[in-house]
Write a structure and sequence with these properties.
There is one protein chain. By secondary structure, this protein is an alpha/beta fold. It folds into two domains: 104 residues, Rossmann fold; 63 residues, Arc Repressor Mutant, subunit A. Helix content is 49%, strand content 12%. The chain contains six helices and five strands, in the order H-E-H-E-E-E-H-E-H-H-H. The chain has a five-stranded parallel beta sheet, with helices on both faces. Strand 4, helix 3 and strand 5 form a beta-alpha-beta unit. The termini are far apart.
Length: 199
């Protein structure tokens, strides 16, 4: 079982609070500092310097897409929505903005620590899923390249097994992967496949 992060591991992290001057900001800052985070506040927008933060707390009640220096739902760090109004439109916007956790206003004396851990876990899980999807897409593209290259080579080799074998020999001769050899055959229109790779 994966070990869960502790308060000590959060110490030294930097949190940004994107919220107008309000008692919420003071209460939130106190909890973050007590946990060991450094805190800065911004309003009404984040600048490019915010890209180095570890967490961003944002006002879901008055927030809008233009406040963030990244594309919608593509934040480089976990986001935590500060929610005062539970109007459906505001909740939908916070989710669309990429909120990984939420904290209800008014902020009291607890709740921040769990919000940090939940946000980081949710953010990391989403990133891992996105990386896995990207890897699957890449593998699918590579397989499609192999099929296209083999189909091309079948024109000269006559059957599928011979075409696969020829593509394998090309990869060995060129000292590249099977998939890279397939992409090279496709890119060069199979011209390399006509030169000196028959045994």
């Amino acid at each position: 079982m994966k070990r869960r992060p502790t308060a000590r591991e959060l110490g030294g992290a930097h949190a940004i609070i994107l919220h107008r001057n309000h008692p919420t900001v003071s209460a939130l800052s106190r909890q973050l500092i007590a946990i060991g985070l450094t805190v800065s506040t911004h309003w009404p927008v984040l600048d490019a310097g915010a890209l180095g933060a570890d967490f961003v707390f944002f006002d879901a009640d008055m927030g809008h897409d233009e406040q963030f220096p990244w594309e919608t739902n593509k934040s480089p760090m976990p986001l935590i929505a500060l929610i005062g109004s539970e109007a459906p439109g505001r909740i939908e916007w916070a989710l669309a903005a990429g909120a990984d956790a939420q904290l209800l206003k008014p902020v009291g004396d607890n709740g921040v620590y769990s919000a940090l851990l939940i946000a980081r876990a949710t953010y990391n899980a989403a990133k891992a899923s996105a990386a896995e999807v990207q890897s699957l897409k890449l593998r699918l593209n590579e397989r499609q390249s192999v099929v296209r290259a083999v189909n091309y080579l079948m024109n000269t080799e006559g059957d599928e097994d011979a075409a696969y074998d020829r593509l394998r020999r090309m990869a060995m001769d060129w000292r590249i992967s099977f998939e890279e050899a397939a992409q090279r055959v496709i890119a060069k229109g199979g011209q390399d496949g006509k030169r000196g790779h028959r045994t």
